[in-house]
Design goal:
three-stranded antiparallel beta sheet; 10 strands; about 325 residues; mainly alpha
Length: about 325
């Protein structure tokens, strides 16, 4: 037998002792009958002995449970590692349960929590879960319940928006779509918006449209609502209530309202709008391109007008949708 002179550990062969001595981390020197205290710890360790004082030691508990399978972990690090590979995270049924706030009872090992069948091996249980009919029926029930809840919530949101708009109108009667009051839109404002360098005509139209339809001091002008840019419909006022109108027609109505306002003011105050008359004429020509084009120049003009009209409509639709969405968030908050 060979013994290390430093730590007193014994080895059967000399080469084992030599390998022990050649380690990068040298062994610790052993001092007999001399306890080595661990700083800031009431537990003292001696060779071949663990001594725990009589005074109780409190061990802090900080369990973190997985929101998918409810398994608990003592540290946040272990919890985060588990969540990345948790099988319940990508399960459609478990996702529906979380959305519907349905309690989850952790199943017993190798027992299907849907049909309660038991299996001798984990592989058999895993294979069964993929085709379990009880699970599929349960999933369909949850999907129907979630859809029902979403429909109810949408009705509540829409009613809240409509009631808020109608209450803001107060004594003023809600205008009919297309008959909005524009007396608050000054010539100075119109010339300043369209005369800004670098501001495109689509942006000019959407900016003036917001001033017409969403001025807080003119609630009677809130005659159009675009609550879904993917929908084919918008809500427009008939003078007392809101009715559905094709989204394209509603957006065109907003564009024409701004264009007509510029043209009317230009006719009344031609000299005042002198510096921006060419841009106003460009807006006015958008709806005058329905003639039969015979020359390449006419065809190019029609093509450019159609492109500009599409860009304006897209900007107006996006701008008015964002305002409606912002108002909706404010109301529900």
């Amino acid at each position: 037998m060979s013994e290390c002179k430093n730590c007193c550990k014994e080895f059967k062969y000399q080469w084992c002792l030599q390998r022990h001595l050649d380690r990068k981390m040298p062994c610790r020197k052993y001092v007999p009958n001399n306890p080595v205290p661990i700083p800031n710890n009431p537990v003292h360790i001696q060779k071949n002995q663990i001594h725990i004082p009589n005074s109780p030691v409190s061990i802090p508990k900080n369990p973190t449970s997985c929101r998918y399978c409810l398994q608990e972990f003592s540290t946040k690090t272990n919890h985060n590692k588990h969540v990345k590979i948790c099988k319940e995270k990508d399960d459609a049924v478990r996702s529906l349960e979380i959305q519907l706030d349905i309690s989850y009872n952790k199943p017993e090992i190798n027992i299907c929590r849907f049909c309660k069948k038991s299996f001798p091996h984990k592989t058999n249980h895993t294979r069964h879960i993929k085709t379990c009919k009880a699970k599929q029926e349960y999933r369909e029930t949850l999907e129907a319940k979630l859809k029902e809840n979403q429909t109810k919530q949408q009705h509540i949101t829409n009613n809240t928006i409509n009631n808020n708009i109608l209450l803001n109108v107060s004594a003023e009667t809600l205008k009919k779509f297309g008959k909005e009051n524009t007396d608050h839109i000054t010539n100075e404002y119109l010339r300043r918006v369209i005369g800004r360098l670098g501001v495109t005509l689509p942006k000019v139209v959407s900016t003036v449209a917001k001033q017409i339809y969403f001025d807080k001091n003119k609630p009677e002008n809130q005659t159009v609502q675009i609550t879904n840019v993917r929908s084919q419909w918008a809500k427009v006022s008939d003078g007392s209530n809101y009715e559905l109108q094709p989204l394209g027609e509603a957006v065109s109505g907003v564009r024409n309202k701004v264009t007509d306002l510029y043209v009317e003011r230009q006719c009344d105050y031609f000299d005042y709008f002198m510096k921006v008359n060419c841009r106003i004429d460009k807006l006015d020509n958008l709806n005058n391109q329905n003639y039969l084009a015979r020359t390449l120049e006419d065809k190019e003009d029609q093509k450019n007008a159609s492109k500009l009209k599409s860009e304006i409509d897209r900007e107006v639709k996006s701008s008015m949708y964002n305002i409606n969405k912002k108002n909706q968030i404010t109301i529900s908050a």
